[in-house]
Amino acid sequence: MSSKRMRAFQALAAILAVALAAPAAAQQAAQATAGQKPAAAKPKVVILATGGTIAGAQPKPGDVGYKAGAYPVSALIQAVPGLETIAQISGEQIASIGSQDMTDAVWIKLARRVNEVLADPAVAGVVITHGTDTMEETGYFLNLVTKSDKPVVLVGSMRPATSLQTFDSPNRGPAGFVLFGKPRWFSTPSWKHTTGSEFAGKIPDTLPRVDIVYAYANVGAEQVQALTAAGAKGLVLAGVGDGNGTQALIDALSAASKKGVVVVRSSRTNSGAVARNVELDDDKLGFVAAQELNPQKARVLLQLALTKTSDCARVQKMFEEY
Ligand code: ASP
Asked: Of 27, 60, 169, 181, whose CB has the highest number of CB atoms within 10 Å?
């Protein structure tokens, strides 16, 4: 295993320690209140592995090329000396893929297993090893369908030694920071998620087809025509600026909406929010505005939303609440 991946996995051990500090302390406090002796046992953590660069292998050290998802979870656990001093760790292989190949079927399998594992009172939390390419999409999907308040930590590896800011949150900034091993949160999320989500714990067998249409100068109607012909039930516009596109693209999307395809306008700019009826008349065109969700996260919410309704007003409400 390369030292880069080893470092990332050791970082996982640190994340574990932080993520589990609060639940473990709460469990001990509850036991003390109930007059029981606090258990000396370390918190039980289940690692669900999906592949990614964090489990990648190079043919030989120094090679640029590598195969994502080559190492099994048992090898990752063995590669971190002293992991057992932090928690009782067990691992399960859910998939062994580069996350560019993530599918609805793997999401469904993973989410069901997360819910099963967390329903066990002995389990303090779950760690998911994952590729970075689609990690935010899996994270957001789990955020909507996990029926538990216990921590679920997604971890991946791609960092060069010079850049620690690979992931960021352009609209809201960091959720918190860790000081002397203790997590400090700047705020608690105001949006619905996990146990507060109407999707939590009810994981469907399949998800409806939703595709993303990309806007650029001079773009025509072809993407919309091809995707609706292929059976898309929903389309997300990765629009220019405030979720916009050429007249040809907007006309095609509005025609799709009139035929029952739910169309959500998001922006390709990677920050900001798309609100209703600003530059475009969403009421007239039949569109939903994605608010803060980028196109790939808007696609996740729209897939779940369509399992409940295809009414634009109800879908819009979900985009305001989640
Ligand atoms: N292609 C890899 C993946 O997403 C990249 C990574 O893990 O950083 O699985």
From this structure: 27
